[in-house]
Amino acid sequence: MLEALQLPFIQRALAAGLLVGALTSYLGVLVVQRRLSFLGDGLAHAAFAGVALGLLLNQEPLWVALPFAVTVALAITWVRQQSHLGDDTAIGIFFAVSVALGVLFMSLRQGFAPDAVAYLFGSILTVTPTDLGVMVGLALLVLLLLPLWRAWAYATFDRELALADRLPVALHDYLLSALVALVVVVSVKVVGIVLMAAFIVIPAATARLLSPTFAAMTLWSVGLGVFSVLPGLAAAYGFDVPAGSAIVLTQALLFALALLRRR
Amino acid sequence: MTAVAATLQQFSVRFGEFQALEEVSLEVPQGAFVAIVGPNGAGKSTLLKALLGISPGALRDAPTRVSGTVRVWGRPPEQVPADWVGYVPQVKSFDHSFPALALEVVVSGLRRGWPFRLTPQERAKAQAMLEQVGAGHLAYRRLGRLSGGELQRVYLARSLIRQPRLLLLDEPATGVDVLGEADLYRYLEAYQRRSGATVLMITHDWEAAQHHASAVLLLNRRVIAYGPPAEVMCHTCLAQAFGHVGHAHGLAMEGR
Ligand SMILES: Nc1ncnc2c1ncn2[C@@H]1O[C@H](COP(=O)(O)OP(=O)(O)OP(=O)(O)O)[C@@H](O)[C@H]1O
Ligand SMILES: [Mg+2]
Q1: Which residue of A has its CA nearest to B55?
Q2: What is the CATH number of the domain that holds A251?
């Protein structure tokens, strides 16, 4: 096990796993508490469409998927702010459009697209140095924006009070959703489209069970998000099982324990 | 001295096809205690939000049209420093799942942001504020576990901790027990005496409005009457006798 840590691709997998675990579970707290759990799913599928478009255009998928998913995230937020439609409905529409576009792009491309399929379930052991570089960049951005937690938490607690205190709540909505889109695109490569929502929802939900305050919930969530990556990766390396599955099952186990502890 | 705290001129708000406020004009003198009364859907909360500088459209709903002017100390409300104004929102379907302690809610009124950690000074200040409104024992309770009346006290402490010059209270006595209501008025009057603040309070409690307010605003989309309580109450008899029936018809005809 320890000598495995000497291998560059294992090192990259570990670093990527920890970064993804931390980023998704941090933003997950805000997403879950705003009842936008479905957003992770929706944006993961937008990422899929973006990747398919990238492959169609013969570009590096990441550079197409990032702006594509951010656009979708901003559009979802715009529709939510403009209409009576519930958040889940707004997300659901863009979810469907993304899948439709993704399938269309794939069919337009000549031949089979194995890379696009790999995105469905993710592959943590094939993280490239470029992927990792983008993740580190994104982590730095999130760190830089950490002071915004106060505004985001306030607007999550009560939108009206935040507005009364002159917070640019709508602007923060756009910013937050764009950031979630960036994190989702970068994570999808590792986690897979199918399991993306779990990374955003489960650690935050577990943290909610354990925390009396929103600050505690945030810390717990990030802690759990990072921690569950370790047994997952070990299982992936040791028993040759998919890392994404192993991580999500670890998260679910911790959730179950938290739930039982409350009884 | 008759400084003016707030002025509305021909202020109208339309939500889609529905006229929520129509040509409301009034002046609130500094230091007044105005009770705002009127039937459900009369536009009382809409009026308060206008004074807060929350544009009705910001809470994402029907397309909104606003006309007329609102001035708070001579400025557009959104240019009034936020900590001059204390606000207790109407009890709504409160999000019980947000993890927070009562103390944190009170501190959020001080910081105008959500606290990650409370400083000892903030703790002491918030605790003292809660005690003043008879809720000291609630400080470390979780928000989701407070009763309706307890919650109102916490929100009141939250609005008062910034020592506002203008207090906007949207049915603050909802769910508060009789003793608590007496406390509430006693406390508000004491605060006013101390600070010279102006208070606008929406209430459905006519008795209380008459006893404690310096002026009553009877609102039903328009200003029906505005003046000293005794005066407005006479109009009120009329408004109650005719207004309710007429109002119900009016609403039905709007076909909202
Ligand atoms: N954002 C909005 N979008 C659409 N309609 C709205 C909006 N806010 C208020 N309304 C409508 O405007 C009318 C006035 O609402 P408001 O909340 O001001 O009434 P109120 O006098 O406070 O009533 P209550 O006593 O029930 O609190 C209501 O019919 C309400 O449905
Ligand atoms: Mg109201």
Answers
A1: A163
A2: 1.10.3470.10
Q: Inform me whether the pLDDT recorded for A60 exceeds 90.
A: no
CB B152 within 8 A of CB B88: yes
A99 CA to chain B: closest CA distance, Å? 28
CB < 8 Å to A163, chain B: 52, 54, 58-59
Domain count, chain A: 1
- Please tell me the total number of residues recorded for chain A in this structure: 263
The pTM of this model reads 0.91
Q: Is residue A259 within 8 angstroms of chain B, CB to CB?
A: no
Residue B104 is inside which H or E element, if any? helix B102-111
Nearest to B34 by CA among B201, B190, B193, B173: B201
Q: How far is the CA of B72 from the centre of ligand 1 (A)?
A: 22
Ligand 1 contact via B154 beta carbon (within 6 Å): no
Full set of structural domains in chain B with CATH = 4-252 (3.40.50.300)
Name the more confident of A126 and B157: B157
Range of the domain at A180: 3-262
Q: Give the span between the Cα atoms of A202 and A236, in whole angstroms.
A: 20
pLDDT at position A114 is: 64
Q: Is the distance from the beta carbon of residue B60 to the nearest atom of ligand 1 less than 6 Å?
A: no
| Per-residue pLDDT reduced to its tens digit, B93-148 | 567 789 999 999 999 999 989 999 999 999 999 999 999 988 999 999 999 888 88
Q: What is the pairing mode between strands B166-170 and B18-29?
A: unpaired
For the segment B34-60, the average pLDDT, to the nearest whole number, is 85
